[in-house]
Each structure stands twice: as C-alpha cells, then as structure tokens.
Amino acid sequence: QGIKFNPLEEEAKAKLSLNIDSLHYNRYDYREINLDLKLSDGAYNGTIVSNSSDANLALTMNGVVTQQTDH
Q: How far apart are CA 58 and CA 46, in angstroms?
C-alpha cells in the first residue's frame, strides 16, 4: 500500500508488511520472519522480528531517506 513511487519525494508514503514462512540461507532454515516498514514524509521506521530457534531476533530501524551524492 502506498502513495507515489519515488521514496525521495517528501509526499511519498508507503506501508509494507512481509511475512516469510521459510528462508534457507547458508545451510540454515529460518522460519517465521516478519518485516513491517513505514515510510512517511521522507522518514522510515520498521521492525524485523523472528521467533525461530535459528534466528531469535527483534530489530528496530529508523532513519531518513536521502539521495546519495558524490563528494
């Protein structure tokens, strides 16, 4: 769900919910990974949560979306 496509525009708004039932990586199977991310007014915040025994984690992220410039 979202409004506008370019995340660098201040008016851009988006909400993402992603549920991963199973993910195989580097010989491990990770299960029940949930990602929630919200973009509004150039800022984002979100969480990644997994209750899997192989990846028991809870991460919180936030920041501002900016265009990379060369120095």
A: 11
* Mean predicted confidence (pLDDT) in 12-39: 89
Candidates 9, 13, 14; CA nearest to 66 is: 9
Listing DSSP states for 30-65 in one string gives EEEEEEEEEEETTEEEEEEEEEETTEEEEEEEEEE-
- Residue linked to tokens 């028991």: 56
Residue 8 corresponds to which tokens in the numbers above?
A: 């660098």
pLDDT band at 47; cut points 50, 70, 90: very high
Of 50 and 5, the structure prediction assigns the larger pLDDT to: 50
Q: How many Å apart are CA 71 and CA 69, to the nearest integer?
A: 6
